[in-house]
Amino acid sequence: MIAVVGALAFALAQQFSATATETATVMKLQVSGKAADCDSFEQPAKCSIQGGQEFTIAVAVESLPAGASGYIGFQTLLYYGELRYNPNAVIANEIVWPDSALPVRSPGNPGGEEGVVGHGALSSQTPPLVVSDYTGNVMQLRATCTETAATFPLALIAYDAAEQPLGTGFRLSEDEGGQTVPAKSTGQAVLDLDGNPETDAQTVDVASTVEINCAGPTSTPIPEAPDLVVRSMQVTLETGGACDFTSTTLGIRISVENVGPIDAGPFVVDVNSDQQTVDGGLESGRKASLWFSGFLSGENSATVDVTDQVSEMDEANNSVTQILPIPTLPLPCTPTPTPVGISGDVDCSGTVTSIDAALILQLVAALTSTLPCENLADVNSNGSADAIDATLVLQFVAGLLDSLGS
After folding, report:
1. Residue closest to 360 by CA, chosen among 381, 341, 384
2. Is residue 44 within 8 Å of 200, Cβ to Cβ?
3. Which end of the chain, C or N, has fewer beta carbons within 10 A?
4. CA dist., res. 80 & res. 77, Å (int)
């Protein structure tokens, strides 16, 4: 492990080092995932994870700072030790606080083996910062258990201006003191924060702890389940590039597929924070196409089952992030001319007779290169004049057909 160094790059980073008040608030760890078995979801103390399996670690705000109407920013410092952290390439995807406007992570590009990671966000990029009263998950990341059976501690390290300036806490608005408020300490833990066996472990205040028991390799087969994936996404018109478009607004068309052996129930698809629900779900092996108005000039992100409504065989293959090429708009359609005259009357006589059938056959046999009203020769409207059209004319003349053409 490498100790996390530096401060989180908040727009008001200097103010985050202010002296904390005595006000404390509650933040807690939560663990979830198909491979996780915890003694409690709301307040887990111990969780068993299948060896080598991925699971989710979340930090939730349980209550607001006492006496304050809310907060304008937060920061968390998670100790994950010898577990494997699987960083998301897009930092904002690990900040699930809905009021986030400036998400940061320290280190910015972690390798996943540092043992400690910090996250944070502000509610605005420039003052005045919006005061948030949100409670619920504010940070969420994925980790993997070791293949070897062992027990490891997870810890949410509390903020301390002198000892842990990256620790877990909140930033209050200037109207309510402008100070950093630490997450309430639930005790202390002895943690090896620098990963160096030659140095002593540190005793730190923690806001929440969970004991993770990696159960080692298991031969238990993964039960059959749906598996939703993003197959493709592209910038296109809502009509999919057809020339009969009614609007030149470009958006992202995404194709999702259920590659699992079981049908999936309803789920939500998210494209650049815009969401649509597939109310009917998706059968095994079937695809669905959705169009979202607008796109980003940089990376565009799409996630299927973003609200975790479907229990899947693989929960780690739901997202795609790409820079998408911008297409050239197709030319408008050229209207198909409507033939003028009586269908089949190729000699322009005003009536359809056997002579018209003979003329069509001569045109097909290349005995003549043109007809007086050649535009009326395609009686069945299949795109070309042929012997079938001549046959239909003869049937009409014989009274076997009531009409020709449309």
Report:
1. 384
2. no
3. C
4. 10
Q: Say how far apart CA 336 and CA 244 lie, in whole Å.
A: 12
Contact between 132 and 171 under an 8 Å Cβ cutoff? The reply is no
> Would you state the CATH architecture of domain 339-406?
Orthogonal Bundle (1.10)
- Average pLDDT per block of 10 residues along the chain, 406 residues long: 36 37 69 88 90 93 88 95 94 93 93 95 90 94 93 94 90 88 91 79 92 77 85 84 70 93 95 95 93 93 95 91 85 61 86 90 86 88 88 88 78
| CA–CA dist 209, 174 (Å, integer) | 31
Would you say 136 and 60 are in contact if contact means Cβ atoms under 8 Å apart?
A: yes
| Residues 302, 254 contacting (CB under 8 angstroms) | yes
The yes-or-no answer to whether 13-214 and 228-323 have a common fold is: yes
Determine contact, residues 282/296, Cβ cutoff 8 Å.
no
Rounded to whole angstroms, how far apart are CA atoms 11 and 5?
18
Residues making up the chain, counted from first to last? 406
Q: Return phi, psi of residue 151, to 5°.
A: -115, 135
Closest CA to 64 of 173, 208, 193: 173
Write down the pLDDT at residue 401.
84
CA distance 370 to 110: 75
pLDDT of the residue at 334: 62
Query: What per-residue confidence (pLDDT) applies to 243?
Result: 65
- Judging by beta carbons within 10 Å of its beta carbon (0-12, 13-18, 19+), is residue 93 exposed, middle or buried? middle
- What 3-state DSSP class applies to 152? strand
Determine the topology of domain 228-323 in CATH.
Answer: Immunoglobulin-like (2.60.40)
Tokens standing for 321?
């992030």
Helix or strand holding residue 313 (H, E)? none
Q: What is the DSSP string of 226-286?
A: --EEEEEEEEEETTTT-S--S---EEEEEEEEE-SSS-B--EEEEETTEEEEETT-B-TT-
Beta strands 54-61 and 27-32: pairing type? antiparallel
What's the helix, strand, coil split of the chain in %, to 5? 10, 35, 55
* Both structure tokens of 266: 């309803």
Which amino acid is located at 146 in the chain? T
Contact criterion met (CB below 8 Å) for 274 and 255: no
28: closest CA among 126, 146, 136? 136
CATH topology of domain 13-214: Immunoglobulin-like (2.60.40)
